[in-house]
């Protein structure tokens, strides 16, 4: 997953979309780790992609986004997924795993917040409400007073 890990999130998702739409017109393996390819761009331009999976930073594409820069663009990603289709599943599994971890973390945070609030004394709660009101934007402060105090 080296090449995928150094690409930006948007390049990976757009490259995956290009892979799903079979935009890699042709490719050939030129060494153990190097590939040359033609990938169809969004306006039907054909871009020349060179990919080195052992040294992903040496990969190049002549699209306007990546040309002359060390950027892993969506065309390189599309080629990578075309050559290694099983990496699509690995990538999607990693994303799912990360989402599950994030959800578990969020749930844990909310649980801790609830125990914290339910454990506060009345005085602590009153002080905290005043502090929070001080930090509110004016419209939210006004709404609180209107809804809760009736003024
Ligand atoms: Zn490109």
Shape: elongated
Bound ligands, named by name, code or SMILES: zinc ion
Structural class of the secondary elements? alpha+beta
What proportion of the residues is helical, as a percent range? 55-70%
Radius of gyration: 26 Å
Number of domains: 2
State the helix count.
6
Distance between the termini: 60 Å
Number of strands: 4
The description of the largest β-sheet is:
4 strands, antiparallel
Low-confidence stretches: none
Task: Note the beta-strand portion.
Answer: 5-15%
- Along the chain, the helix and strand elements come as HHEEEEHHHH
Main sheet: strand order:
1-2-3-4
Mean pLDDT: 96
Oligomer: single chain
What does this structure look like?
There is one protein chain. This protein has helices at 2-6, 9-20, 74-83, 86-118, 122-135, 138-149, and strands spanning 24-29, 34-40, 46-52, 60-61. The chain is of the alpha+beta class and 151 residues long. It has 2 domains: 2-84, no CATH class; 91-149. It has a 4-stranded antiparallel sheet, covered by helices on one side. Strand 1 and strand 2 form a beta hairpin. The longest helix has 33 residues, at 86-118. The termini are far apart. The mean pLDDT is 96. The structure holds zinc ion.
Short characterization:
The chain has 151 residues and is an alpha+beta fold. The chain has six helices and four strands, in the order ααββββαααα. It folds into two domains: 2-84, no CATH class; 91-149.
Spell out the key features of this protein.
151 residues; alpha+beta; 4-stranded antiparallel beta sheet; 6 helices; 57% helix; binds zinc ion
């Amino acid at each position: 997953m080296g090449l995928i890990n150094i690409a930006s999130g948007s390049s990976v998702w757009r490259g995956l979309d290009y892979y799903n739409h079979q935009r890699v017109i042709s490719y050939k393996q030129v060494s153990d780790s190097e590939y040359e390819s033609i990938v169809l761009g969004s306006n039907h331009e054909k871009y020349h992609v060179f990919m080195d999976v052992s040294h992903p930073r040496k990969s190049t594409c002549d699209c306007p986004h990546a040309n002359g820069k060390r950027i892993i663009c969506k065309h390189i990603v599309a080629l990578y997924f075309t050559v290694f289709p099983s990496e699509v599943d690995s990538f999607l599994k990693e994303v799912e795993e990360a989402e599950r971890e994030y959800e578990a973390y969020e749930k844990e945070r909310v649980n801790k917040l609830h125990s914290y609030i339910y454990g506060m004394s009345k005085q602590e709660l009153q002080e905290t409400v005043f502090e929070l009101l001080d930090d509110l934007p004016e419209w939210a402060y006004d709404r609180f007073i209107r809804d809760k105090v009736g003024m």
